[in-house]
Specification:
The protein is of the alpha/beta class. Helix content is about 30%, strand content about 25%. InterPro entries: Acrylyl-CoA_reductase_AcuI, ADH-like_C, ADH-like_N, ER, GroES-like_sf, NAD(P)-bd_dom_sf, Zn-ADH-like_protein.
Amino acid sequence: MGTFKAIRIDKAEKGTTAALTQFDEAELMEGDVTVAVEWSTLNYKDGLAVTGKAPVVRRFPMIAGIDFAGTVEQSSHPEWKAGDKVVCNGWGMGETHLGAYAEKARVRGDWLVRLPDGISTREAMAIGTAGYTAMLSVLALEKHGLTPSSGAVVVTGAAGGVGSVATAVLSKLGYHVIASTGRMSEADYLKGLGAAEVIDRAELAGPAKSLAKERWAGGVDSVGSTTLANLLSMTKYGGAVAACGLAAGMDLPSSVAPFILRGVCLLGIDSVMCPLPQRKLAWNRLASDLDKGKLAEITHEIGLDQVIGAGAQILAGQVRGRIVVKIV
């Protein structure tokens, strides 16, 4: 047993503290697989955890970070052996189970997904929970029956992590993507990802009408609150919106009108406890339906020592696309 680098969060008199420090391997939690972590990523939830802006962390001390990719070091799980390349998202990592911003992680083997052929550990974290959540949203829309011939799809928070991947995937699949953003300066970036139109998020602000003019057949929303309410009021008859985030708040000031007068469906997307078969499907679809060139364009890299500062930036809406965190 030794020590390794990790971002440790501790309870303080007021709130929490976060610091890059040495963590004792003997303090790792129970699990049947130990992974040498190579890459992690920065998600909105990670920003909340490392800054202490919301009570994401529910166990102390905690190692922050909700997802990782790396190589199995030790395993007593029948599915895994040393040398396997794996990815892990959610399951309470960084919240109730020691997380990913560390050189080692010990988890249950049932939480792991084998890295699909053609995706490196770095690319897996360029996708990360944000991209995996975007793919779960696309799968839900497809299950609802949405196809490119159904009409346009809208993506909110389009310049963020979920939005960037959703825009890239949906455009590659042939959809007419309308990207909504609060940063119209990112219009060229979004069109480069495949957006056919870019609209200002102001068009989805303010109190939502019970029913507004029909504008799209479906949507992927990572914003919530009034934005989602407006999205629903503008969805075409029989359409659907996949809701996967709350950047603007947890409230939903809507009415039942879109549901009972237009047959609109609101599809809830949870990435944390998502069953393994759906996880595997999402990762395999990402391997085939996400343009690697576009993924590279939306990604930039930081070190573990830069995570806490970047966490504040992502909460302030100052992060474009995806951030990968180099662990070793």
